[in-house]
Design goal:
Blueprint: H1 8-17, H2 30-36, H3 40-49, E1 63-65, E2 72-74, H4 82-102, H5 123-126, E3 173-175, E4 183-185, H6 187-197
Antiparallel strand pairs: 1-2, 3-4
Helix pairs in contact: 4-6
Length: about 210
């Protein structure tokens, strides 16, 4: 049966309670935690798979977790429209090149960042109320990007195009929904996306791709 969706505070409370595993109250659950270790690579894979992209300042995802706090998984598979995704990375590459030249937002890290004996930071106390950093987004106000500027950096670009009805954009785009199983983009839209993706595209065709 489908479980009801719980607020994030439930998971945070479980993780906070299990911060010190040496307590006697957790002795009976040791076999459970050892058994969960074999799923840690998959949990890390799902975490990396759903990491926010440079053009996203933050990302909220559903999490599947064990009631004992032994293991948790990000319960989402990210899906994209390939030309849009390539164009998004093209703009990110362009802006990161500028950042490397100007050094406005990033500074070199001091290593080691944490002391060996330093306890893990609590998310609620140290990170929950911190404003996320500014997303890396190119200014698309130029008229040549008029067909893509309104949706290009949406969390699921064009995923809700069918609910827009007879809009101007619907004449250029067809997408079945957030699953992106079927999509069609008109030539003007593809041309604008291709121009943004140009820094990452090979100048010569590669037979291995």
């Amino acid at each position: 049966p489908q479980k009801e969706i719980l607020p994030p505070d439930v998971l945070r409370k479980i993780l906070q309670d299990h911060g010190d595993m040496s307590s006697k109250r957790y002795q009976s659950e040791k076999r459970l935690y050892l058994g969960a270790l074999k799923y840690v690579p998959h949990a890390l894979y799902k975490l990396l798979e759903n990491i926010p992209m440079p053009w996203e300042s933050y990302k909220e995802v559903p999490v599947l977790f064990h009631v004992t706090g032994a293991i948790s998984f990000v319960d989402q598979v990210p899906k994209v429209i390939e030309p849009v995704y390539r164009a998004q990375w093209g703009t990110a590459w362009l802006l990161m090149r500028r950042e490397k030249r100007d050094r406005r937002h990033f500074k070199r890290m001091r290593f080691p960042p944490f002391d060996d004996e330093e306890p893990p930071l609590d998310y609620v106390d140290h990170l929950l109320n911190v404003e996320p950093g500014e997303a890396v987004q190119l200014d698309l106000s130029d008229d040549q990007y008029e067909l893509i500027r309104d949706w290009f950096y949406d969390p699921q670009p064009l995923g809700d195009i069918r609910s827009m009805g007879d809009s101007e954009l619907s004449k250029h785009v067809y997408v079945n929904g957030p699953s992106y199983k079927v999509w069609r983009l008109s030539t003007p839209v593809m041309a604008q996306l291709y121009e943004l993706a140009d820094p990452l595209l090979n100048a010569f065709p590669d037979k291995n791709v």
